[in-house]
Structures are given as C-alpha cells and as structure tokens.
Amino acid sequence: MTEEPGPRAIAFFDVDNTLLRGASLYHVGVGAWRRQFISLADILSFGWKQTKFLAVGENGINIARLRARAMEIIIGHTRDELVSLSHEIFDSRLVHRLWPETVAVARAHLKAGREVWLVSATAQEVADVIAERLDLTGALGTVLDTVDGIFTGQLVDGICHGDRKADVARGLAEARGIDLAECWAYSDSHNDIPLLELVGHAVAVNPDATLRRYALARGWPIMRMKVAQLKAAGASKKR
Fold it and tell me: What keywords is this UniProt entry annotated with (predicted)?
C-alpha cells in the first residue's frame, strides 16, 4: 500500500482477529461480568468460545448464536452503560491486543487521505469506541434496538456479518460518492468474502484456511502477524 495521496477512497477493516487478536465480544463479556451484568458461568462459556476463536477463527463456531447470547446480557441496560464499559475494556484489555501492523496500515490510509471505517459484527457502541480511540473515521457495527435509551435485546437490521457487511459498506460508499473500485478491505474470515469482493483492493489478514485459499486464487495480498510481535509491541509500550 502506498502512502501517497490518491483518489478519494475508504479502507474498511474488520475488527476481530484483523485489527485485534481474538473476539472483542469476549472482552465485553469480561467487563460485563466485573460489573455484575452476567454470571461466572456466562464468562466461563465466553472464555471457551474465545479460546476456540483464537484457534480456528469463525470456522465451526455458531457466530449468530454467540452474538445473540451477547445481546441478551445487556437487556435492561442503557446505551451510556455500554459506551462506558467499552471505554473501560479498550483501556484495560483491547489496547494490549491490537495488531500493531494492522493499526499502522490503517493510519497509513488516513495519512494518504483515505477514510478508515471499521466494519464489525460487534455492537455499534463498541465499534464506535474502538474507532474513536484509534482516531479512525468511523465504524459500522451491529445496531441494537433501544427504547428510551434502554436495550431491548433486539437487533435493528440483523447482525453486521457476512453479506450484511458488504451491504453497509456499499451504502456508505454510495452516500459519499466514492468508487468502490478505489477502496480497500481487510479481514481474516471467509465470511467477509462479500466485503472483500466488493472493493478494488482486498487484503487477507491472518486468514482462515478457506479465505487463504480464496486469496491465493484471487492474487490478494496476505498479511501475517504472530503473537510474539504482539507481545513485543506491548512490551515496548510499557518502557
């Protein structure tokens, strides 16, 4: 990717296992448990799913069911509570799990004059906080239904996942009058192939097996990061 100014464009980034290692949902769950929103049994269940997610990505995991369970834990809580929780988990957990290479690429896009948007199945409020704390342009996430600012447990337009990610990205580009052929997309999961196919510049980031094969067939670049690099970046921040 070049840092030289180019045509007006957007770079879309998946969050889980692309921008940060693991599932942001798990860390929201930890924070929710600490605030006594959920039980110890709930957080142990989330922990098992996080371990599996780190090992195999979204393969073999019922993402829809996992997301639905996560939505249940915030029924009766307010948007302000979720935003506050999101800031808390970003500072205590997520910032230490960011892939430095992916963050650097996102910032290079910004420097080149492109917009950078997160496109994630995580709750809109969580995605907004991550984008805000990283000084990105914005975020497109799963919109949770509220009544008088209180979450009902229902979703607005479903989970931002798979084809839905491509739909919201297309809608954003069209609203801004931006040619998708000039845009970029980054993801680790084969579920995001619709998003990756949508843009002119697709990049697979630590791809799962299916996406790796697809990327190789399409000639897409592949970014690879290792846990050692993440730990090294965390150690340098502590100095």
Answer: Hydrolase
